[in-house]
Input
Amino acid sequence: MKTGRILVASSGAEIRAELRTALEREGHLVVDAVSPQQTLEESCSGRHDVLVLDSALDGLHPFELCRAIRPKSDLGIILLSRDNSGQGRIDALNSGADDFVPDHFVLAELLARVRAILRRVVRSTRHLVLLPDRAIDFQSHEIKGPNGRVAHLTPKECLVLRHLVTHANRPLTPQNLAQSVWQRDGSGRIEFVRIVVKQLRRKLEPDPDKPRYILTQRSAGYQFQLPA
Output
C-alpha cells in the first residue's frame, strides 16, 4: 500500500483528530490546517500529495478554495461536504476537487479513496506523449503548449486522459471511463466523465469547441485521436 503526505484542513478539532488518527494508523504523514490561508499555502507548497478538505473550514467557501489551489498545485483534493445533492457534487468537480465524500462518511471508505488517489498521484516513472503542437507529461501532470503555455491536470483529469491515450483511436463509452477512473460500476458517474472531458478539452485543445484530439463519436463515446 502506498503511503503519502496528507493535508487535513478543517476548523473542527474533533474531525482533524479523527482523520489524523485514522490516516497515521495507515502510515501516512499528516499535517493539519485550520484556516483557508494556511490551507492555500500548504497545498501549494509541494509538500503534500492529498488534501482532505472539510467544507466546515471557516472563512472561505470550499469551492472558492479549490479554485484558488488548482492553478498552483496538482495535489489530489477530496472534499468532505454537507451538500450531498447532485449539483453539489458537480460543483465540487468543476471547482477542481478530485473526489467528493458526504459528511456522514464511513471512515474506511474515505481511507480507500485516499489510497486510490495516491496510486495515481505518487508516480516514479515518466510518461511523455508528444503531439504536433503540444506535449502531455503524465509525470508532472502538465500539458505543455505553444509559447510556453502550461496547463496543469488534476489527478482525475490525468487518469481520464491517460486511459483515453492508452486506448487511442478507438471510442470508449462514458460507462467504460467511469468504471476505469472511479473503480466502481460506473453508475451515477457519467455526468462526472462529461465534466472531466470538458475540462480536458479546455486545457488540451487549440479550440475546445472544435476538438482535434478528444473526439465525440456519436452513440459510441469519446475517442483520443492520436496523429500518425
